[in-house]
Structure formats: C-alpha cells, structure tokens
Design brief:
100 residues; mainly beta; 32% strand
Length: 100
C-alpha cells in the first residue's frame, strides 16, 4: 500500500470552503473510504466507469469490478467495499498552437 496524503481545496459557488487550517481541509489518504469524500467531490449525476480486469489465463477476478471516477485531473479507482484502490494524477495536454 502506498501511503499518500492528498489535500483537497473545496470550492462552492466560487468561494473556498477551506480556511487554510489543516483541521478544516479535506485530506484523502490511503485509508479513506470513497463514501466519505464522494459527496464533496462529485455532482450527484456523475457516474463511474466500470473497470473489469480479467487475466488472459484466468478469467476470474477475486476482487470484482472496480469503479473509476474522474475529478478534475485525478482518477479515483474504487473497490466495491468503498476503499480507494488507486489514485492517478495526470496533466491534461496543453492546447496546440494554431498553425500559421
């Protein structure tokens, strides 16, 4: 297990909800459950992408499907027991300059 801490600044209506105090910030870590953070990060209508991992030699997966949620530049992979299985950070591509 990778021990990570991901501080999140929450905004509602263009205003920051965090006061900059560590006690007031949402910090997602390796032991966070998705149920604890999803309502603060997602809109109710956002649906996950379902990820099925199957081995070519063995088509059964003991952990079952996982659910991937995209939030800004982060992808959260969540197991069926609500534990966060992985967090992927990415940088969106920069816009290409217009051809001259």
């Amino acid at each position: 297990r990778c021990e990570f801490k991901l501080p999140v600044i929450l905004e509602k209506g263009g205003k920051r909800m965090s006061q900059g105090d560590e006690d007031d910030q949402l910090v997602i870590h390796a032991y966070s459950k998705w149920i604890e953070v999803q309502s603060l990060l997602l809109k109710p209508e956002q649906r996950p992408v379902i990820l099925n991992r199957a081995s070519s030699t063995n088509t059964s997966n003991p952990f079952g499907s996982t659910f991937c949620y995209g939030v800004h530049d982060i992808i959260f992979e969540v197991m069926q027991n609500q534990h966060i299985a992985s967090v992927s950070l990415y940088k969106p591509p920069s816009p290409s300059p217009a051809p001259s």
